[in-house]
Amino acid sequence: MNAKAAWIAIAMLAVPGLPVLAQAPQPAPACDRTCLNGFVDRYIQAMVRHEVADDLFARDARFTENGIRLPLGKEGSWHLATARGTYSFYVPDVETQQVAFLGTLRERGRSATEQRVVGYSLRLKVRDGKITEVEQLVSRPATNLFAGNGNAAPATPFGNTGDNVEKMGAPHPRFAADIPANQRETREALIRTANAYFTGLQANDGKGYYPFTDDCIRFENGFDVLANLLDPDTQKRGRMTCKRQFEVALKNVVSRVRDRRFVAVDREKGIVFAFAFFDHENINWTWQLAELFRIENGQIARIEAIFHQAPYGTPSGWSTYEQSISDAIQDVR
After folding, report:
1. Is the domain defined by 33-143 classed in CATH 3.10.450.50?
2. 33-143 and 172-331: identical CATH topology
């Protein structure tokens, strides 16, 4: 501004009754990876303290836990959480300004003195420096048993998800390795590869497209699901590959994989994070799950998931009815 213009501006401010135009508020700068991960830390800290602060949350922030919309700050883990757990896996998505997380929490149990460790997964959406959406999945001890035979036989204990996940210690170093810049796939390509896992599992006949690396490893609720498996063809036990398990051991196990919501993609690390539902028609229940995939050269190399048993047909709380029963890809932004 030159001297003449400056004097004109000052004179205008001095004129009684002349309206002064306020400068429009500027949107907060976009979060980088560290910033997004920091929102997870701040969110969990706020939940443990049971404090909903205006400097962290938008006034209209929306919150769901296990597919149910609840009042933010009053119910679910906001009521029960006592401390953060020891396992932490962040998946920042700078492009969509969302961040996903897989880890553990400590919660109060049925009494004030009882404590339990729970499996925990989370999605946050950040806009203008505040959290606008919170979606979390909590796997508590009473909700993570494998089914029995549907008759009098009891369910087979899977163990407590929270304890199992904490025993893993930390995410495998392979997850932290950067994908070379010239080998990084597009967001769409990474999601397609991850979705092939869901499509391959749905009504699986053992002859589908299974894009796994030869050394793929899969953990569910902190449990190595490929260890000491019985191969139905050879009748021998041992470590099974991801592909072999799909070909011989996971036939027609899952009726439908629906509401496939891909909520965070970290192209730098080749990681895709999704929420989905595995329906089992024969036993009339649903696994509600959060699952992440490490993808290298178009193949899935590592998988981690946290899930819990939900009523058959449970929705996510974020999709329309049509989306909730569809097996189509949803790229959540």
Report:
1. yes
2. yes
Q: 42-83 pLDDT, tens per residue?
A: 999 999 999 999 999 999 999 999 999 999 999 999 999 999
Question: Which of the following CATH numbers is that of domain 172-331: 3.10.450.50, 1.10.357.10, 3.40.50.720, 3.40.1080.10?
Answer: 3.10.450.50
SS3 assignment, position 310: strand
Average pLDDT for residues 94-100, to the nearest whole number?
98
Cα 171-158-247 angle, rounded to 5 deg = 75
- The predicted model scores a pTM of 0.88
Q: What are the CA-CA distances from residue 333 to residues 74, 92, 257, 290 (Å)? A: 27, 13, 21, 17
Going by C-alpha positions, the residue among 90, 87, 77 that lies closest to residue 49 is: 77
Task: Show the beta-strand stretches assigned E in 143-268.
Answer: 212-220, 223-224, 229-231, 236-238, 256-266
